Amino acid sequence: MKQKLLIAVALIVALAGGIYLSVNLAPPQSAEHAKLYPQPRALPDFTLVNHNGEPFGRETFEGHWTLVFTGYTYCPDICPTTLAELKSIYPQLQQLDSDYPIQVMLLSVDPKRDTPERLKEYISFFNPEFLAATAEHTELFPFVRALGMMYAMSDSTDNPDYLVDHSASVVIINPQAQVIGRFTPTLMPGEMAVVNPQHILKDMPFIIN
Q: Which is higher by pLDDT, 9 or 67?
């Protein structure tokens, strides 16, 4: 009787240990941080201008995974911080096992000041492999909305130091030029609301495969 009791106790301990290990040590089987849509969302036709002054259309997204961030070069805080964070993980993103490479793009929502020349200089400061593009507001606004993002001028553009309010998420576009979800900023008291780069690095292997 005593032997049976010991065996039962041992089995319970082993089972509990197995459950603990599966929950706490086993790698996750899906993205934990990205907010993915139930179905990919096709982008409408669009024409932007890239940092080389060339047309930027759907074909730029096709055949790549793209991480898109809306912002502008005169942004005082969130934009340079987010781009610096993306720069820090970019080498690791390039090493992920995928049939399609990952590219990073800044979509400027300030076409008045962000000329192709300025965009090229700005984006090259972070990484010359990054992409940047913009367009006039009539083209830009519906495209930003199609990405699930928003922006608005917070001041009159007659003021040379005007600011632009914009979404701070990083949008994920698949190699078929479809929006599949986003990484949203981490909201912590007293800290800047920016996307955590480690969340991107942790989830992208599951997303691209």
A: 67
| DSSP type of residue 204 | H
Global pTM value: 0.84
DSSP letters, 53-110, are S-EE-GGGTTTSEEEEEEE-TT-SSHHHHHHHHHHHHHHHHHTS--SS-EEEEEEES-
CATH number of the domain within which 69 lies: 3.40.30.10
Q: What is the largest CA-CA distance in the chain?
A: 89
Helix orientation angle between 116-126 and 78-94, rounded to the nearest 10 degrees:
60
Please calculate the CA angle 132-156-153 and round it to the nearest 5 degrees.
Answer: 45
Distance of alpha carbon 74 from alpha carbon 135, whole angstroms: 16
Cα 7 vs. chain centroid, distance in angstroms? 52
- The DSSP element (H or E) to which 9 belongs, if any, is helix 2-24
From CA 92, how far away is CA 121, in angstroms rounded?
24
pLDDT for the residue 192: 84
Separation CA 89–CA 92 (nearest Å): 5
Total structural domains within the chain? 1
List the domain range (segments joined by +) for residue 173.
33-208
Q: Report the candidate in 154, 161, 158, 110 with the shortest Cα–Cα distance to residue 136.
A: 110
pLDDT tens string 44-82: 999 999 999 999 999 999 999 999 999 999 999 999 999
Structure tokens at 86: 């993306």
> Is 136 inside a domain boundary?
yes
